[in-house]
Amino acid sequence: MAELDSLLCTSSFSSSTPTDMSLSNSASLSSTPPTTVSPDSMSLASELDLPKPESITASSIEAVVALPGAQETEPQQPEPQQSESGQQSPLGADAIVVAEPLPLAETPSTARPRRARSSLPVYNIARLAGTDVHGRRRSKGDTVLEKRRRTISDGKLVKGTDSELDVSIDALPNASQAVHEEVDASKANRSVSILHTPRNARISKKSLASPASAHLTRRATRLSGASTENLTTKLSALSKRSKKAVEKGLKGLSRELRRLQDTNEFAHIDTRPVRYTVWSNGKYIDVDPSQPTPAPEPPRKKVKVDETTKTVEAKPAVEKQESTAPAAKKPHGKKKWLEKGLYAGQEAPLDIFKGLTSQEKKKLASIPELMPSGKPNKTLPQPMYNGLRVLINGRDFKLPFDVCNPLPPGQPKPTAYRTMTRNRFVGNAAAYWKKTPHFEDFASKCVCRPEDGCGEDCQNRIMLYECDETNCNLGKTYCTNRAFQDLQARTKKGGRYRVGVEVVKTSDRGYGVRSNRCFEPNQIIMEYTGEIITDEECERRMNEEYKDNECYYLMSFDQNMIIDATTGSIARFVNHSCSPNCRMIKWIVSGQPRMALFAGDRPIMTGEELTYDYNFDPFSAKNVQKCLCGSPNCRGVLGPKPKEVKPPKIPKEDDKKKKKKKGPKSAVKASVQAKVKGSAAKAAAKVSVKTSTKTATKRKLKDAFEFDGNDDDDAKTVKKRKIKAATGPKRTLSSASLKVAKGAAKGAAKGVTTIKRSVASVSVAAKKKKTALAASSKVTKAKATIKKTTATVRKTAVAKKPLGSGKKTTATAKATVTSKKLTQTKIVFPSRSPSLTIVAAGVTTTTTTTTAASSAQVSTPVSSAKSLPKLTLSGGGKTSSRKVTPSRKVLESGGLIPGSPVSAKQKSAKVKANTGPEGTPEGAKRTPKIKLVSGAK
Ligand SMILES: C[S@@+](CC[C@H](N)C(=O)[O-])C[C@H]1O[C@@H](n2cnc3c(N)ncnc32)[C@H](O)[C@@H]1O
């Protein structure tokens, strides 16, 4: 026994307050990992008020270890009991206390401590503390014998084996000081930094004051829901000596552990009541059924409420609101456009902080450059919304396209260009114009209804007459055929966006024009303005003023009428493309000749270069220019469309014969006569009307009007046309045109005269039958079938009248309106010359080649023209030879047999007029042919 005592003196285990049962369940605290040291044990020590300071720890342990029901409340009197090594404690298997034999204590510290300690019984401090529910490893039975334990004992590592060390602590009446210190050191694994704090002192006092029994009868704190005392608080109850020991022991702890030692987590203390059985952070948490089920937390996010219930619930509130104040409807934000900038139209937010996150607001506040200066930045307003955000973040961004003018500084500007926003008649041009039928014809009032809105059926529109107060049945409100007025209203104030176009320098084609904004399909873009001159004046200018020029800006509008845009609008800089995005269309506005560039069938984006098909007619090889448009279907040269070059198919035998029989009259006349007079013409008329479906006639009409061609679609159509043999009126018309072209050079003056006369007759007829025009409304209203129309055509006497008879007949453009009442109506088709002529450079003579700027669009260069410098004026000339130009009414009648009156309805069906907001006509489909003869020298 004494031996054992002596052994114990050096043992690392101690039990200064020997108890029978409690001690038996004690184990080396030093072997307990710091994370499982129970703070309660510490507090208990103080509460027990034990005489020996060094025994406090042990006694506290005893108290804690005491099994429920056993002497929990009363500390047992020390009753020295000894048990032999390896003897099980009377408490049973669960209370295994292992004492370390003396010899092992003397073992040098080089021995492996873990193995030595592995067999030592370990107090389940977690369990004692009521925190064992957290850790599975210690929750059941506390069988930690096999577990490795690290023991620090005064810097010595203790080693032992299970057999050797299984000594009941009961057999150790007095624990050695070393053991005490070990235990204390273990306890000190909790925070000691707070040990000497006043708070701890207070707590310690409090603890002392509180009855010990309360602590002795303990249950798992977490389960009880009672607040747990902090470990530090409990440590503070240690005596001075113990604290010393703790501090000493702390030295062996890793820094990380010391850092954690204050935390409840470290001590496995969860102050929150456990309500559910869950795995939380890898810990299994038991349910305490005694605890009431907590009310579910309110959802953070708004839960979707059933629509029906929502409406039911919301209804009274809404009603209430309505009753109190009339519902102020929030007006839909109308998108406006700023003067400049990519985001033109968006108003800069007044509160720039609006919509930003708090972090962004903070950052923005620190960037004074971004603060609103007070006046709007019109030069380059920053992009709205995202722009500011991007600037705040200092992130680079790229605009979808260049907003700045790509003209680099120092680039030559077009010098010869002078702006002219309105056409100006020069010389005799005005007088000449007044003589033309259009001057009066345009005044005919349309018969549209408000619901039609002067759409595709509007006769004015079909005729390319713009509606105005004098000739529109609807008025400004409903009329959509006022493109030029719209353009004027748009550009009135000026400004880049309103004007919408700008001159740019292209890399290879001189200057060009690009859009500064988007345009809708068929929307009017800009007017081609300049001086309206006669052919004579044009020649003079070419010979004198422009003789050294490389480019000419002369566009033929009508017979003996040319618009010289050398001084004019920037439309003159619009380049050619074989796949254009625009069309140049000639209109008559308030009786005046006007020409404008319209968007094609697809919308135009900001920054796109604007182009139209020049349908360039070089007339001479030397004038042929290489086309650099770069489109996939590029024709290679600034030349006419392939369909124009290709000679039309040889007409049928009988047609040929009949035409030949007519003698050497004007080709036009011959063809017209053939169609109007002869049986073939009758047949053709029949064919044209009978067989023409809406689409078919449309196509013919297209051919007749010479479309600029728009995009690839147009190219496809062109191909189609090439393959398809001309039939019926088309064919005859083509042959007529061909004849015109061929015979023009030979001076088919007679024919021209005839045509001229016929044109005149048209106007006369138009005048005479002006009243009949009103009846054309019936045309639009009456959905006349093709058969009916055919009948009408047959019956129409006018159509059958031969031109040669001297009677006033129209070759075309006469629409005989028929309902069953057979009201005759004449529609005069636009007689704007279908050719644009830009006079070739170096014109020295006035030898003229006449092109048949016809519906067939055969532009046959005349052989004589090759050797001669020429002035090419298609569709009109100053000399008699120029007058060979076939009647536009014939040519523009769109594949209808000249002289064959066709109902306006039928025509309008064929001509698909634009119904867009800006009243663009169908565009290319009715675009007069534009021929551009090379202006380059
Ligand atoms: C009415 S001007 C157009 C404006 C011209 N680019 C300028 O700088 O004044 C017509 C001339 O422009 C050139 N051009 C226009 N389109 C072209 C194209 N697709 N390929 C080559 N040259 C073109 C030709 O020299 C043509 O004679």
TrEMBL record:
<feature type="compositionally biased region" description="Low complexity">
    <location>
        <begin position="1"/>
        <end position="43"/>
    </location>
</feature>
<dbReference type="GO" id="GO:0032259">
    <property type="term" value="P:methylation"/>
</dbReference>
<dbReference type="InterPro" id="IPR050777">
    <property type="entry name" value="SET2_Histone-Lys_MeTrsfase"/>
</dbReference>
<feature type="region of interest" description="Disordered">
    <location>
        <begin position="1"/>
        <end position="118"/>
    </location>
</feature>
<keyword id="KW-0539">Nucleus</keyword>
<protein>
    <recommendedName>
        <fullName>Histone-lysine N-methyltransferase ASH1L</fullName>
    </recommendedName>
</protein>
<feature type="domain" description="SET">
    <location>
        <begin position="499"/>
        <end position="615"/>
    </location>
</feature>
<dbReference type="InterPro" id="IPR003616">
    <property type="entry name" value="Post-SET_dom"/>
</dbReference>
<feature type="compositionally biased region" description="Low complexity">
    <location>
        <begin position="71"/>
        <end position="90"/>
    </location>
</feature>
<dbReference type="Pfam" id="PF00856">
    <property type="entry name" value="SET"/>
</dbReference>
<keyword id="KW-0158">Chromosome</keyword>
<feature type="compositionally biased region" description="Basic and acidic residues">
    <location>
        <begin position="298"/>
        <end position="322"/>
    </location>
</feature>
<keyword id="KW-0808">Transferase</keyword>
<keyword id="KW-0489">Methyltransferase</keyword>
<feature type="compositionally biased region" description="Basic and acidic residues">
    <location>
        <begin position="641"/>
        <end position="656"/>
    </location>
</feature>
<feature type="compositionally biased region" description="Low complexity">
    <location>
        <begin position="665"/>
        <end position="674"/>
    </location>
</feature>
<dbReference type="InterPro" id="IPR006560">
    <property type="entry name" value="AWS_dom"/>
</dbReference>
<dbReference type="GO" id="GO:0042054">
    <property type="term" value="F:histone methyltransferase activity"/>
</dbReference>
<dbReference type="GO" id="GO:0005634">
    <property type="term" value="C:nucleus"/>
</dbReference>
<feature type="region of interest" description="Disordered">
    <location>
        <begin position="638"/>
        <end position="674"/>
    </location>
</feature>
<dbReference type="Pfam" id="PF17907">
    <property type="entry name" value="AWS"/>
</dbReference>
<feature type="coiled-coil region">
    <location>
        <begin position="243"/>
        <end position="270"/>
    </location>
</feature>
<feature type="region of interest" description="Disordered">
    <location>
        <begin position="849"/>
        <end position="937"/>
    </location>
</feature>
<dbReference type="InterPro" id="IPR001214">
    <property type="entry name" value="SET_dom"/>
</dbReference>
<keyword id="KW-0175">Coiled coil</keyword>
<feature type="compositionally biased region" description="Low complexity">
    <location>
        <begin position="849"/>
        <end position="865"/>
    </location>
</feature>
<keyword id="KW-0949">S-adenosyl-L-methionine</keyword>
<feature type="domain" description="AWS">
    <location>
        <begin position="441"/>
        <end position="488"/>
    </location>
</feature>
<feature type="region of interest" description="Disordered">
    <location>
        <begin position="287"/>
        <end position="335"/>
    </location>
</feature>
<dbReference type="GO" id="GO:0005694">
    <property type="term" value="C:chromosome"/>
</dbReference>
<dbReference type="InterPro" id="IPR046341">
    <property type="entry name" value="SET_dom_sf"/>
</dbReference>
<feature type="region of interest" description="Disordered">
    <location>
        <begin position="706"/>
        <end position="732"/>
    </location>
</feature>
<feature type="domain" description="Post-SET">
    <location>
        <begin position="623"/>
        <end position="639"/>
    </location>
</feature>
